[in-house]
Amino acid sequence: MADIKHSKPSKKNHVEDLCVAYILYFDEARGHVPLMIYPDDKYKNDKKYMRPIKYHSIWFFDIEEQAALDHIDLEYKGYTFFGKKFLTKSQRKKRRAGFVEETPETIVIIISLPNDINIFGDDLIRILTKVIRENFEDKLFEMIEADIAKDEVIKTPQIKKKIEKGEELSKKLWELIGKTIDDYFSDVVKQTDTASIKQQKAISYLALKGIDFSHISGLLSKDTFSKIKLFDPNSTANNELALRIPLSITNITIMEDSKELEILVRNNLDEELKDLTVKITHVKEFFEKEIMNQIIDLWFPKEELLFISPILPHVDEYLLFIINAKNERIFSKKIDLNLLRQKEQ
Predict the structure, then answer these.
(1) Less crowded by CB within 10 Å, the N or C end of the chain?
(2) How many whole angstroms separate alpha carbon 184 and alpha carbon 163?
């Protein structure tokens, strides 16, 4: 039985071209296997293309460890790869001793976005994961079963039936992913809050890339983003706009003598922030390790707080996360010591 081929959108730039979504599963015989890649499945066996997926640190975290960070990110050659892992129902016969039919399937969802708009990654992977789980959580194992069955040399009527059912589900999932991504960016570009740096950054990038919005219903009406002046010389200065961001780093100092990193972070809001967690981690050989974890009970308006982290030997890149009481990441920043040292020279 021939596979359903997921065709790539036309050369005309569409919103969904901004994002690539990978749905992967763990096959006890082959390891980590891509179930589908949206919008083009043809790269499944391209080792170079799949390199950041294969070595994404999401594979090295168990479900409990990942829950503390919500999802795991990897930056690679101008793109940020957001990864999320979960377990789901299974009733398929496993191919390794120690696994039973009811052993849950391990599903990984990864989306990649250009670094210019990676600010949208947190929301998009959360929404995409939620939509997939709500609609396919009890059906993913059938798609996996069909994917594995395609490798059978002799395809009995029963195997063919499994493949056919899996392909039907695969087509529906494919369409759901496309609609979710399309709807998400449609909502983004319809926002007309000119004070939003997130919005201006996205619209600027999309406009420069020549992304076509005409296929999104009603988007080209008079109430769309056309009111936004991307490069208006009369607009508010960048440093004033920065104050609208809830948190910002005002200074970073490398203490070479004590091998410490001092990071000064400001609460830009006119209101108090409560129950925050501040974490500093580093990524080495695709493993993310936490080196500082501090609880902030109360952060006053306009107050600057100093966070001190040890500088580890042979580690030059660090990640700063600030997470609220709902376990939502409200601020993140990559800190590159090499770039900081170059600026100081």
Answers:
(1) C
(2) 31
